[in-house]
Each structure stands twice: as structure tokens, then as C-alpha cells.
């Protein structure tokens, strides 16, 4: 449901980067609503499974280690969905800085965290950090629009 929510917030005709895509189920959901998805994962087995099971001509699966994220710098994205595996290995300033350079000026970041404490770590880096439930409530209440540029953290 988080991917569906993120896809609806981004809207159609968007270019989305799905970082740590796993076996590609979320990428498939994003593509159905948004348009084009570049899905990356550091595990070649995940990319192989995703490419076999989630076939679509508008999803591009790539093996990319997060330490080499700069190789994607030739493209800018309307949305970046970053599924952080854990705080220690996947949430560091260098990787986050590289990801930020891949977003358009009005692009949206969505961080899916397995560890709720990681939200505190992110709040030290970014000025505006919202968890998934707060964002959902704000949108339903009409307090937050698609055009707002914030970092969204989903649990």
C-alpha cells in the first residue's frame, strides 16, 4: 500500500527511481501509475528475479551498488523511492547526497525505513521530515499538495 500511495502522490507521466527495489513488486506498482521507473538493487539475484517476473517496457532494472549511485547522474527523476535496509549500511551522508543530486528541483523523496529510529537520523540531515501517516493525514486534510517538496519517510 505504501507504493500505491507514493505512486498516487507522484501522479502520471513521471520518471521515478526505485532504490533497493528488491524483487520489483513496488517498481511494478510505481510504473502502473507514474510512467517510467528505473529500479536498482545491489543484489544481482533480486534484479534477475524482478526482470523475469515484473516485465514491462517502462521499467528498467539495473544492478547498482549504492556506493556507485553516481553512475546514474545523467538522468534526473521526478520521484525517488529509497527503501533503506538499515541505518548503518544504507543511510549515510554521501549516499543521500548522491541521491539528492539525481532529483529534479521539484522532485520528491520517499524513504521507506525498516527501522523507526532511522527517522531521527534523517531529521538531523533534512529540515522537513514527515512519516508516512503524517503525510497521508495532511494530504487528506488538504494541508499538503503534490507540489510541496519535502522528504517523506515511510515506515
Question: Gist?
Answer:
The protein is α/β, with parallel strands linked by helices and 155 residues long.
Question: How does this structure look, described?
Answer:
The protein has 155 residues and is α/β, with parallel strands linked by helices. Helix content is 37%, strand content 28%. It has helices spanning 2-10, 25-34, 44-53, 87-90, 93-100, 118-125, 132-140, and strands at residues 14-19, 35-41, 59-63, 77-84, 103-113, 129-131, 151-154. A seven-stranded parallel sheet has the order 3-2-1-4-5-7-6, with helices on both faces. Mean pLDDT is 76; it is low at 125-129 and 146-150.
Write the layout of secondary structure elements.
Elements: H1 2-10, E1 14-19, H2 25-34, E2 35-41, H3 44-53, E3 59-63, E4 77-84, H4 87-90, H5 93-100, E5 103-113, H6 118-125, E6 129-131, H7 132-140, E7 151-154
Parallel strand pairs: 1-2, 1-4, 2-3, 4-5, 5-7, 6-7
Keyword list:
single chain; 155 residues; alpha/beta; seven-stranded parallel beta sheet; 7 helices; globular
> Low-confidence stretches at least 5 residues in length (pLDDT < 50)?
125-129, 146-150
Biggest beta sheet attributes:
7 strands, parallel
Radius of gyration: 14 Å
Strand order of the largest sheet: 3-2-1-4-5-7-6
Shape annotation: globular
Query: Termini, distance in Å?
Result: 11 Å
**Overall SS class:** alpha/beta
Q: Helix segment count?
A: 7
Helical percentage: 25-40%
> What is the element string, with H for helices and E for strands?
HEHEHEEHHEHEHE
The overall average pLDDT, rounded, is: 76
User: How many beta strands in the DSSP annotation?
Assistant: 7
Provide the β-strand percentage band: 25-35%
Amino acid at each position: 500500500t505504501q507504493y500505491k500511495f507514493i505512486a498516487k502522490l507522484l501522479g502520471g507521466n513521471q520518471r521515478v527511481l526505485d532504490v533497493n527495489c528488491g524483487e520489483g513488486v513496488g517498481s511494478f506498482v510505481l510504473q502502473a501509475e507514474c510512467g517510467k521507473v528505473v529500479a536498482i538493487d545491489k543484489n544481482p539475484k533480486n534484479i534477475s528475479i524482478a526482470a523475469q517476473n515484473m516485465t514491462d517496457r517502462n521499467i528498467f532494472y539495473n544492478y547498482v551498488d549504492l556506493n556507485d549511485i553516481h553512475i546514474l547522474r545523467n538522468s534526473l527523476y521526478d520521484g525517488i523511492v529509497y527503501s533503506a535496509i538499515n541505518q548503518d549500511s544504507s543511510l549515510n551522508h554521501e549516499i543521500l547526497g548522491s541521491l539528492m543530486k539525481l532529483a529534479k528541483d521539484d522532485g520528491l523523496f520517499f524513504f521507506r525505513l525498516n527501522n523507526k529510529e532511522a527517522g531521527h537520523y534523517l531529521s538531523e540531515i533534512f529540515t522537513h521530515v514527515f512519516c508516512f501517516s503524517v503525510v497521508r493525514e495532511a494530504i487528506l486534510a488538504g494541508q499538503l499538495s503534490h507540489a510541496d517538496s519535502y522528504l517523506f519517510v515511510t515506515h
